[in-house]
Each structure stands twice: as structure tokens, then as C-alpha cells.
Amino acid sequence: MSTLVLTDITKYLGGRPVLRSVTLTVPSGSRTSVVGASGSGKSTLLRLIAGFDIPDAGQISLGDTLLAGGASTVPAHRRGVGYVAQDGALFPHLTVEQNIRFGLSRSARRSTRVAEAAALVAIGSNLLGRYPHELSGGQQQRVALARALAPSPQVVLLDEPFSALDTGLRASTRRAVIEALEQSGVTTILVTHDQEEALSFGDQVAIIDGGRISQAGPPAEVFDNPHTADIAEFLGDAILVPCVVRDDVAHTAFGSHVIKHDHRGSGDVSKALVRPAQLMIDTESPTPNAVIIDVQTIGAKQDVLLKIGSTREMIRLPVVTAAPQSYRTGHTVQVSVVGGVVIYAS
Ligand SMILES: Nc1ncnc2c1ncn2[C@@H]1O[C@H](COP(=O)(O)OP(=O)(O)OP(=O)(O)O)[C@@H](O)[C@H]1O
């Protein structure tokens, strides 16, 4: 078993706490993404797991082995942890084959491990003799993953491995990497500042903010039920509208809604989270509740700015439409919400 457990990890750098009481469990063979803004502590967390640095407090264990935080620390090269850096960090003077072989023991070098690892990341034998500069960015990242997987590590750490790739290559490389990780069954942590990447990567997403994990759980659950309004906004387009709660129903300028999750705590004034995908616009309704303030057409998409009811609330809504003329500045429409809302204290 290679379940990775971080317990109460704290790390100071330059006299400042960079990680504060971080607790996270990554079950054996599963994938977790850690997402946070620049400087939130993501790379520091990976460095501690890899063994490049040690925590000031807390423990890191892998299966039954205490890696850090005990009487002694297991050194990086004995941890069974592979690491893939942002730019792949391939050795430029070594071929693909030599790069993948680099971390293998003498006996493993003679085995079929190099060919297996290359095949796992879909690097064909025709590329094995090439040097890194003769590969595309996506191929370089896949070779870097093959090099990390070749020694059969228990854990692989990916530090923003797709961020240097352009959009199309990024999506295809990500799919190839996920497939290779799935086949190898290795426990994986990916750190990224890209919310979509984090939400689509694995079994668990952990949000890190100012060195603390603010929420962790299955991606669909975390997206559906962000514990704070800040997390809701961080994870994707969020409309937060004032609401009044009466008889366990949330009343907003859009109408009345079922409350899916209530995070008001002791606060009484509240706001409701609505995702743009929940909004329906009816241009023919006899009971309009919003007026179109501005429309911008970008190809098949329209960006519609609406003023809701008699409030001062404005919302900007991306709409895909086959009939762009439906939305005109000054027209009234009815906006309704499909599904329930999550509410927070204001
Ligand atoms: N050696 C160091 N000495 C002092 N402060 C450091 C050191 N290394 C990192 N920091 C600080 O620790 C904080 C967390 O850094 P870290 O690199 O872990 O963040 P990150 O979330 O990975 O950021 P990015 O997405 O920009 O790579 C930052 O504020 C950074 O300035």
C-alpha cells in the first residue's frame, strides 16, 4: 500500500509560515490535484513530500513508512517518489532513452523497464535516440513522466507539468499523462494554478490558500458545494446574489430556490451562489425580471449584461445562441435559475 498521509505540516521559509497545519490523505493508486494561486505554497508542499526539504512540524508517511517528522528523515532518493518539474528538466546532453534510464538501478537498466515506461507515455521507439531539443514540448513532458515512472515509484509528484504548453497541446498531453498514470496505478499529486485542470485531473482536489488547505474532496462535490464564497469564486464563474431565507427557501431577484447547502453559520444576512450554467433566459416571457444593458457578440457567443429586477445587481452572462438577434440592448427578459443554490453569510 502506498497511501500518502500528510499530518499537520508546517513550514517556515525566510521567517514566514509558507505552509500551515496542512493535513491531506492521498489514497493508494489515486490522483489528487492541489490548486492555488501563485505563492500559496504548492511547490513547497511537493518539495517536502519529495524530500528536497524537511517540514518544521508535522509528519509525512507513505504506507507504513514515516518519511519525515519522526526521529529520522528518509532521504529523497530512498523515498520511492518520482518528481516531474514544470519544464520537464530533461538532461539536454542525453537521448530520450538515456534520460529514461537515468534513475534506474543497474539490474533494472538491463531489463525492459525503459521500453515499458516509454510505451506507457506513448513515446515510440523512433524517438528513443533523439535529444530533448528534437522533441515537441508535449513529447518532452511525456519523456519526463516516463523517466519518473521507470523506477516504479510509489508516488509521482507533478509540479505544473503542463503550464509551458500551448492550449491544444496542453489538453492532449494532459489526457496522455492521465492515461499513463491510470495504467501504472501510481499514487499521484499534481499541483497547478489552473482550476479546470485541477477539477478534471483526479479523484480528489485540494484548494490551497495562504499555505492552508481550505477545502478538499472529490472534484464534483467541491465544485457543487464550495464551503466559502471565496472558494466558489476561485473555482469558476460564480454569481453571488443577495438573498433572504424564509421557511428554508432562498429568495433572490431571480425567484425562489431550494437551498442545496447552507454555509451561513451564525451570519444572518446572506448571499446565494448561482453558476452561469444554471441560468435560463426567456426573451418571450410575459413576466420579465431583468433588462438587457449591453450585448457583445463574439462569433457564435454573446456576452449579455443584465440588470436584475429593481436591484442594482448586474450580471454578465456568456450565452451560446443560434439566433443572436434574440438579445438586444433595452429588451426585457425573464431570468430563472435551474437547480438549487448554496448560501453564505454576507
Ligand atoms: N527559499 C525561500 N525563502 C523564502 N521564501 C520562500 C522561499 N521559497 C519560497 N518562498 C515563499 O514561499 C511562498 C510559497 O512559495 P511556493 O513556491 O511554494 O508557492 P507556489 O504556490 O508553488 O507558487 P507558484 O505557483 O508561483 O510556483 C511564496 O510566498 C514564496 O515567495
Automatic annotation (TrEMBL):
It holds the Pfam family ABC_tran. Residues 4-235 form the ABC transporter domain. Its EC number is 7.6.2.9. The keyword Cell inner membrane applies. PROSITE patterns: ABC_TRANSPORTER_1, ABC_TRANSPORTER_2. Keywords: ATP-binding, Cell inner membrane, Cell membrane, Ion transport, Iron, Iron transport, Membrane, Nucleotide-binding, Translocase, Transport. SUPFAM superfamilies: P-loop containing nucleoside triphosphate hydrolases. One of its GO terms (cellular component) is membrane. Gene3D superfamilies: P-loop containing nucleotide triphosphate hydrolases. The keyword Transport applies. One of its GO terms (molecular function) is ATP binding. Coiled coil: none annotated. It is an enzyme of class 7 (translocase). PANTHER family: PUTRESCINE TRANSPORT ATP-BINDING PROTEIN POTG (PTHR42781:SF5), SPERMIDINE/PUTRESCINE IMPORT ATP-BINDING PROTEIN POTA (PTHR42781). This is ABC-type quaternary amine transporter.
